[in-house]
Amino acid sequence: MIADQAARQLHDKATRGELLSSEEQASLNEWYARQDEAETAELSQAAVPERLEGLRRDVDAAMTDLRSVAGRIQTLSRENEALRREIAVLQRQLVDKIAAQSA
């Protein structure tokens, strides 16, 4: 296992475009993997900030409101369709009544 300081020097060398030997590249890749593992472990143990929890609650509340509004829109849409049909029936009846009186 390569020492942290030596790995940092290899990283610096590689990022400057200098060529690494295959052994140096393998050591650097191993160091990168250890750094990734350490970062992943640290992130998985980190507590979720209260602000993030608050935002999640806000999103959940907004989704609940959205579902409620969507349901109300569907209800109004059905009611409007029923009224349109009723209006069409009444208009036909009116036309028929006018036609009967004219005859």
Task: Characterise this structure.
- The chain has three helices and no strands.
- The chain has helices spanning 4-15, 22-45, 50-102.
- The radius of gyration is 36 Å and the shape is rod-shaped.
Q: Strands, helices and their partners?
A:
Blueprint: H1 4-15, H2 22-45, H3 50-102
Helix pairs in contact: 1-2
- Rg over CA atoms: 36 Å
Number of strands: 0
Estimate what percentage of residues fall within beta strands.
Answer: under 5%
Q: Look at the helices and sheets and give the structural class.
A: mainly alpha
Mean pLDDT value: 91
Q: State the distance separating the first and last CA atoms.
A: 106 Å
Number of helices: 3
Give the structure's gist in a few sentences.
By secondary structure, this protein is an all-alpha fold.
Which key features would you list for this structure?
103 residues, mainly alpha
